[in-house]
Specification:
Length: 257
């Protein structure tokens, strides 16, 4: 399949590891120019150097000015952004009953506000060119809230509502807006969550992982490259009639339709 991504400009925050890095590598293989961004500047610069056409940008996406700074760097390197991937780290685990105002505001800022700011900076150009892709990295918690991940559930659900609303507003302009919802993908983030669950419950990490896998029909955690393939398809030209969707990549873990 010809993805049509040759020469397209793709921006991927949170690209120093895990699904963000896997997405950057996948679209690069399709001939896209890629901007990898993360706080670990040395890592994203090293990873970018391994790709055919890419740069690494050191940035902390929790800073208010980060979206404008990042988009400016991307445009200086390659030109207007064609594909925007909304990705980044998640807030710490914890129950809903113990939240305070500061924690909730920080999660919403991280998972919704900063992503909305990125979209607002690149969307006008996408609409003018009549082609664009906005792809949010979500969580299975968007459709079925996950116990002890209250902050993630709140912030990602807000992003899902924003993206679904936006999708209907820009579809006629050639811009698609979708989310990909990972289940248990083998990343550092999932390792950290498994470790936190083990500490909270008094079980070993191995026991926690085994229990998680028992609830996944595929019988294993997903691989970052499998998740990246789903994102790459939604970014492609053949996916131009798919918008406003939430695509699960979870090995059948979610039992809802």
């Amino acid at each position: 399949m010809d993805t049509g991504l040759q020469g397209k400009h793709v921006l991927v925050p949170g690209a120093s590891a895990g699904i963000g890095l896997a997405v950057a590598q996948a679209v690069a293989r399709e001939g896209a120019d890629v901007v990898l961004a993360a706080r670990r500047g040395d890592v994203v610069r090293e990873e970018a150097a391994r790709l055919p056409s890419a740069i690494g940008v050191e940035i902390d996406m929790t800073d208010d000015g980060a979206p404008a700074e990042l988009v400016a760097a991307a445009e200086e390197a390659f030109g207007p952004v064609d594909v925007l991937v909304l990705n980044g780290g998640g807030p710490p685990p914890g129950p809903a009953a113990d939240l305070d105002d500061a924690q909730v505001m920080a999660a919403v800022h991280q998972l919704l506000v900063q992503h909305q700011r990125l979209v607002s900076l690149v969307l006008p150009g996408m609409r003018e060119r009549a082609w664009g892709r906005v792809i949010g990295m979500g969580s299975s918690g968007v459709q079925s809230p996950i116990a002890n991940l209250a902050l993630s559930n709140i912030g990602r659900a807000g992003l899902a509502g924003y993206l679904k609303t936006l999708a209907g507003e820009v579809a006629a302009d050639g811009v698609t807006v979708n989310m990909v919802l990972p289940g248990r993908i083998g990343t550092d983030r999932v390792d950290a969550l498994d470790a936190a669950t083990a500490k909270r419950t008094g079980r070993s990490v191995e026991e926690v992982r085994a229990a998680s896998m028992a609830g996944i029909p595929a019988g294993r955690y997903g691989r970052p490259e499998e998740f990246a393939a789903a994102v790459t398809f939604l970014a492609s030209e053949p996916a131009s009639f798919i918008t406003g969707e939430q695509l699960r990549c979870d090995g059948g873990m979610s039992r809802s339709y």
